[in-house]
Write the structure tokens for this entry.
Amino acid sequence: MNPFRRVDHAETERLLDSARADVDASSNQARPATSSEGEVASSPARVPPADPVAGVLAAAAGPARPGELAGEEAALAAFRAARATPAPSVPHRPGRRRLTTGALVWIGAVAVTATAGAAFAAVNLDRTPEPVAPGPSRTSGSPDRGAPTSGEPGRSTPPGPPASGQPSPSAPVSDRPPVPGPPSPGTPSTPGAPAGQLHGLCRAWQAKKPEQREQALRTPAFERLVAAAGGVAEVEAYCQRLAPESRPSEPAKPKAPPSPTGHPARR
Amino acid sequence: MVCFAAAERGGPSRACHGARMTGELSEAVSAAQAGDEDAFRLLYRSLQPGLLRYLTALVGPDAEDVASETWLQISRDLPTFTGGEFRAWAVTIARNRAMDHLRRLRRRPSLPVPVHALVDLASTADTAEGASETIGTETALALIATLPPREAEAVLLRAVIGLDAGSAGRVLGRRAGAVRTAAHRGLRRLAAVLETQRAAEPSVEVDGVPPPRTGGSSSLRAPHAEPADG
């Protein structure tokens, strides 16, 4: 009665293959128009199959419906973000990379050895009590106390106590607050994730529909973002600072500076 | 792109379609790996509808969320993709995300059966002769989703995503033969459902999907000895 009951696997395979082949034909014809969603419904290449099962399969594999591509911008934002901070191990050209890595390691080893030797020698010569404390160097030295050390800090200062009673430059000065070091970076407390990645996560999150945003934050994909923002409720403000939403088409910049405190949130 | 030129002249063959799709896709994959956004967009547009439909069968209304997680991971892991069937790679990611999602929800991958879809199907199938013009994508997917999960997955991977049996087997962690069998049984079940719809339209009974007939041929033994998914 039903012819399909008698069919074998070959017929099944043919049916399964043909369902998708029809779609490929129609979607390829629609693709040069960059899949403008207007002509999604029309599929000129589809012929009505006689078999009802084939009809179901062809319909199931039918061309894209408009809502199905709604996440395109979010996906692209994720793609940009991933490009901004590429994966740590990308084995593109293993041979060449190994060579480069080897050379770098070698250079690094030489540099470390040389520096360590010099530092060791310096320690032996100077017997400075705190060799690691940077102290006011000659480049950023405060003008009132830059004089006693001569131009070369590592070598010329004798190890004995300074005759003039001045504290040694590397010792902490008690009567002054410690100088805020110039290299202290302004990165907000995001220990694990680099800023570019968070920026991309923000972009991906912002590209979601508002009613989906809260739910998205419960997924592990945005775990890091929530952690960096300090909670689900803080994500919006955080992302607003990190990646203002007003320019969605702008390519993601990996090092968008977090705006200073007085900057009002733009909408 | 010989096939593409042939298509412009008109009347491309089906085999040409398959080859062109694969070639186009792998070109787009390498371009996207090199940072080409348009290529990535092309990948998205060619894969996302199928991914979303497949995920709908796995996680129901959460499919969109899982799909966006999937694309997040695809774009992150794209540099590590070393070749092969890109669709299978992407679908594997999607399936893993779906399984994680279900694990989080402590739910089995089963579907709420959309009865109304079957009712629609029954009425339209009777009024119109050409079934393909009246069965919408939504209805067809709902119908496939009424199949047992293994069969539904096999049918969707084969017919909607467009994988061959071997690739689908790698996605599912099963042999190609098991995928063929599952798809075959799924299609037989579909045919039986459609037939009962046609024969007796008023009694739309979802639970009335007939059990698979295993007496017919020896190749249709139930593959219950396989490893569980996930």
Summary: The radius of gyration of chain B is 19 Å. Residues 1-17, 113-133, 203-230 of chain B have pLDDT under 50 and may be disordered. Chain B touches chain A through 73 residues (CB under 8 Å).
